[in-house]
Design a protein that fits this description.
Length: about 325
């Protein structure tokens, strides 16, 4: 043993000192002790004495809380640690799940640049809503600058605004889209948990080896959700954009349904003639009735006997 280390006394803390060094409050430390998350201190006369092991444990708890673990889950992990099972694989898996799910890098934007991108006039309500949605985040100590987690998302909003979409409509659309995308993400996680990760969840917490293998799978599967959504969105946009163009942007005027899947564009002159005959409010009904009558007439004509060139009647069928 290093003689210098042997001469160095172990650190000792009163609960107030432990709180100062760990960043936790005295009340929190006592609550962790009551829940079994923190070992009991050593009793010295009328004082409780804490050591470096307590400080390390508090920092572990704080790190796991930051990663989204509940206190109940943390207790299971720490009990596994105390029983001799390492946390390295588990923490590696947690780090992989909490890692970035996109290659996009966050950026910053000044308030002047933000105002310029959205018409030049300050809009406090729009900024407040963007902060609520997480499109913008405050920069501590800076009132004239914002963090932009997704510059791409902000750029889309600016383009929509420039095209004439009100900011309130953009925010409402984002809220609706976010709910739908969160549903997709939830279903993807359920799907992969059932068919891929279920075998790693047999032990709570998983073994180091299982956690490391699961972390590697997360790295492999990470891009699949976005790739699938991108492909399906492209397919849907290709299908529905064509229909939308046909229904709303073709300039020939009103159209009537030919069947459940196709529509027919009528010449504008025909539409005007029908409107003059029956009035604008009855145009569609008149065209539909006329088409139906023509179809019935042609059906009857096909069933009637027709004379040949010599004046004799030929029987059809």
């Amino acid at each position: 043993m290093d003689e210098r280390a042997a001469r160095t006394p172990a650190a000792e803390y009163r609960i107030e000192d432990l709180a100062h060094h760990s960043g936790a409050t005295v009340r929190t430390i006592r609550a962790y002790q009551d829940r079994g998350l923190l070992p009991k201190p050593e009793r010295r006369g009328r004082s409780n004495v804490y050591g470096d092991a307590h400080l390390t444990r508090l920092r572990q708890i704080a790190d796991l809380l930051d990663r989204g673990y509940t206190l109940a889950s943390i207790k299971e992990l720490l009990e596994a640690w105390d029983a001799g099972r390492g946390l390295g694989g588990v923490l590696g898996l947690v780090a992989e799940v909490h890692g970035p799910w996109t290659d996009e890098k966050a950026d910053r934007i000044t308030r002047a640049e933000l105002d310029a991108a959205f018409g030049g006039a300050p809009d406090e309500d729009a900024v407040r809503e963007a902060l609520e949605l997480g499109v913008l985040e405050c920069v501590p100590g800076r009132d004239d600058e914002f963090l932009v987690p997704s510059p791409q998302e902000l750029s889309v909003a600016a383009e929509l605004y420039a095209a004439g979409v009100p900011l309130s409509a953009i925010a409402g659309h984002l809220r609706e889209l976010r709910g739908q995308v969160e549903h997709i993400a939830h279903r993807f996680l359920e799907f992969t948990t059932e068919h891929v990760f279920a075998r790693y969840l047999e032990h709570r917490p998983p073994t180091d080896a299982d956690a490391s293998e699961a972390a590697a799978l997360v790295r492999r599967l990470r891009p699949l959700a976005q790739q699938t959504v991108d492909a399906e969105l492209a397919r849907a946009m290709r299908t529905f954009a064509a229909r939308h163009l046909q229904q709303h942007l073709v300039p020939e005027g009103p159209r009537v349904e030919e069947d459940t899947t196709r529509q027919v564009a009528l010449p504008a002159a025909t539409i005007r003639a029908v409107q003059q005959l029956v009035g604008p409010g009855n145009t569609s009904a008149f065209i539909a009735a006329a088409a139906e009558r023509e179809v019935r007439t042609r059906t009857l004509d096909a069933l009637m006997p027709t004379p040949n060139n010599c004046g004799q009647v030929e029987q059809t069928g």
